[in-house]
Amino acid sequence: MTSLVVGILVFVAVGILFLLANLALGKLIRPDRPSAAKGEIYECGEKPVGTAWIRFDLRFYVVALLFVIFDVEMAFFFPWAVVFGSANRAGDTGLPDAERMNAANTIAPGTTTAPDPATMQAFAQFAFAEFLIFFAILLVGFAYLWKRGDLEWVRSLGGQVREGGREEAQKSTKMEVVGTEIG
Questions:
Q1: pTM of the entire structure?
Q2: What's the confidence (pLDDT) of residue 122?
Q3: Of 24, 55, 168, 178, which is least surrounded by CB within 10 A?
């Protein structure tokens, strides 16, 4: 095994050992005094109202998943920016060879010769084209979600005019939620 694999395995083993040691220490130190009050439902200091078996609105999950998806996708832009910037610096003929070597080592560690500026510029253009394709895919996904209505929260039917007139529309208190009605 290489030293990198050994280092990773040692890191994972120490992490697991640290976790198990803290769990065992907590089990030994903490007091064990169960009571009825400790078994009650706790809702941010408020008295629990109703049952816990209610239908939870899925829009919360949809918004959270959309945030995670687009947030993680945005995290991929940082490594791309590092590679793109380093490729541009390595391909800049106006910079000294030492600085170009430093930029090339950011992309490919262990580089011993100065990179060809034309190759590095072509690599930077390729990286930029990759970025445009990646961003276009993100935009297509975003447009799809927007068109589908997943980015809208609640569409109230109470304020919309129906065939029966404005009075009937104002009497209605139902709300449309992605194909279902609640009221």
A1: 0.51
A2: 92
A3: 55
